[in-house]
Amino acid sequence: MGIVGNMLHRFAALSIRARTLMRSGAPRIIGFGLAVLMSAAVSLAAIPAMIAASGEAAWGSIALGQAIGLIGGVAVGYGWGWFGPARIAQYGPLERRVEYFESLLAKSVLVLPISIVASVAAYILAPSDPSFAATAAACSTSMGLSAAWYLVGLSKPFTMIAIDTLPRVATTAVAIVLMYTGRSAIMGPIGTLVGSLIVLVASSTWILRETGRADGPIQLRPLRTVLVHNGDGIASALASTVYNSAPIAIVSIAAPSIQPAFALVDKIKVLVVIAAAPAVTVLQGWVPRTIGHARLRRTKISLVGGAVFAAIIGVGTAIVTPSLVNWFGNGEISVSNEVAILLSCCVSVIIFQTILERVALTTADNLGAAVKALALGSVVGLPLVWVGSRLAGMTGALSGVFAALLVVVATESFAYARVAAESRGVLDQVSAEANWP
Fold this sequence. Notes:
Layout: H1 2-24, H2 26-54, H3 56-77, H4 80-90, H5 93-125, H6 130-141, H7 148-153, H8 157-180, H9 187-210, H10 223-229, H11 231-254, H12 259-275, H13 277-286, H14 292-328, H15 337-363, H16 367-434
Helix pairs in contact: 1-14, 2-3, 2-8, 2-12, 2-13, 3-5, 3-6, 3-11, 3-12, 4-5, 5-6, 6-9, 8-9, 11-16, 12-14, 12-15, 13-15, 14-15, 15-16
C-alpha cells in the first residue's frame, strides 16, 4: 500500500499542477481555442457544400488532394511550426525578425516546386476527378506560408485570430456561398489559396511592426545554411505528416469504393486533433520558458495532463462521430460504431503523440528520435492499412492506422524517458558540484 499510496500522491500533485497551468493559461487557451473553433467550423461547413456542389466522388478527390497538400504545406513550412514557437518564445525583437524573414526566404523558394509535385501526385492518385485533386493539393500547399507559429511563440492568440484566422474563415465562407449558388466544389480549395495569400501579407506587415524596436541591421544567413540548420525539424514534421496523410492515398488505390467515406472520417480525425491544438499550443510556449529541473517538471506535467486530456477527447469523438459523418456526408455517407471507436482511439493517441513530439522531444532537442519512430511506425502500420482496407474495409484500414500510432508513441516515449533521465543525472551532478564546500 505504501508504494501505491506514494504513486497516488505523486499523481495527485501532478494533477494539481496541471490544473494550475490551465487556470494561469486560461485566457490564452480560450483565445487559441476560439481560433481553432472558427477554423474548424468553416472547414466542416465546406464539406457538405462541396458534396452538394459536385457530388461525393468529387469531394473524395478534393479530400485526397487536401491530404497530399497538407504534406506539401509541411514541406513548405520546413519545420517552423514545430521548433519555431520555442525559438520565438526565447528570442528578442531582432532575433525574432531574423527568424521570421529567414523562414519567409526559405518558403518563397520552396512553395512553387512543392506545389507542382503535390498537384502531380494528387492527379495520378485520384480515383476520379483528378483535376479537382490536383487543384486542392496546390491550394492546400499554400497553407505552409502561415506565420501562426510566430504568434504561438509570442502567446498572442487574439492577434492570430485577427490576422490569420479571420481572413481564412472569410474566404472559405465566400467559397461556401458560391458553391451553394451553383459554382463547383473547386471553389473550396480556391478559397483556401486566397486566404493563405491574404494571411501572408497581413502577418508579414504585423511582424515588421512588432519587431520595429529591434536594434541593429538584419543579417540573414544563406538559404543553404538555414535549410541545413533546420534539417531535424523538417524531417520530423514531414515524417509525421506523411504517415498521417498516407492512409487516405493508400485507401484510394487499395479500396477506392470506401475512399469517400474514409476521406470524411479522416477529415473528422484531423479536425478533432486541430480542435485540441490550443492546449498543445500553450504548452509549446510554456515549457521552453524554463531551464533545468523546472523544464523537466513542466514537461512531466504536460505529458500526464496531456494523456488525460487525450483520453477525454477520444471518448467524445466516439460519441459524436456517427452523427457527424451522416451530417457532413450530406446523408450519403454513414459509418459503424466499430469505426467510430477505432477513430476515437486514433484521435487520443495522435493528441498525446503531438504533445510528446512538439513539447517533450522538441524542448529536449531530440527530434531525431521522432523521425526514427515515425519511420518504424510507417513500416509496421502502412502495409496493414493496405491489407486491412482490402480485407475488412473501413475497420481494417483504421486498425492499421491505430497499430502504426501505437508503435510510434511507444518508441518516442522510450526515447524521451532515456533523454530525460540523462538530463536529470547531469543536472543533479552540476547541482552537487555547485554545493560542494
